[in-house]
Amino acid sequence: MNGPSLFERALGDRFTALPPALRRFHRLAGRHELQGLVETDAPASFAGRLLARCLGTPTRATRGPIRFVLEAAPDAETWTRHFPDRTLRSRMRFAPGHVVERMGPARLAFALDARGGRLRMHLVGLRFLGIPCPAWLRPSIVAEETGDRVGAGERLHFRIEASVRGVGQVVGYRGHLVLPDACTGESASPRG
Fold first, then answer.
1. Is 136 left (phi over 0), alpha (psi -120 to 50) or beta?
2. Second label for 188, Cα 20 to 30 Å away, from 30, 54, 142, 164?
3. pLDDT 10s digits, 127-154
4. Can you say how many angstroms the Cα of residue 148 is from the centroid of all Cα atoms in its chain?
């Protein structure tokens, strides 16, 4: 598949500021399965657990392997995260200047920032069950990626946290994915 990826389009010239591992990950096209390790947090309250269950995010603290399936096309990507006790699937699509992620009944619009060796996603809009959420009610979200090289390979590190006022933390997980070796079958088809 040729042409810029969803994240290249959303970041524009800022894409080149990402570390090599992140540029490589966000240029993958087609279907890929990545492995890694993850640590998840339990939601902070009963209401947080209910909201996590509704979104499909982890509902208890775990530590273990994660299997990540990426299905990437230029205008949309499907991310399926197989946590130790739960599977979370979301779909991302390009919108001018943003990436919009659909996760269960929520549609989140993110502005992207590539500085200091990190990719950060800033929540700028939210619809829940199709209803726009006012800015003062939006969750506080940390969504960031970094990358590094380990021996001959590369890893993508991620950290996701989401808290809702009056509910506390709903989502929390962090870990890494091992990026596929270049040019090895299904798991390494970067865009040309």
1. alpha
2. 142
3. 988 899 888 888 999 999 999 887 668 9
4. 17
Q: Is the pLDDT of residue 188 over 80?
A: no
Domains of the chain (ranges; CATH) run 6-187 (2.40.128)
Q: How far is residue 191's CA from residue 8's CA, in Å, rounded to a whole number?
A: 11
Whether the full predicted model's pTM is greater than 0.90, yes or no, is no
pLDDT, position 96: 85
End-to-end distance of the chain based on CA atoms, in angstroms? 7
Please give, one letter per residue, the 3-state secondary structure of 41-78: CCCCCHHHHHHHHHHCCCCCCEEEEEEEEEEECCCEEE
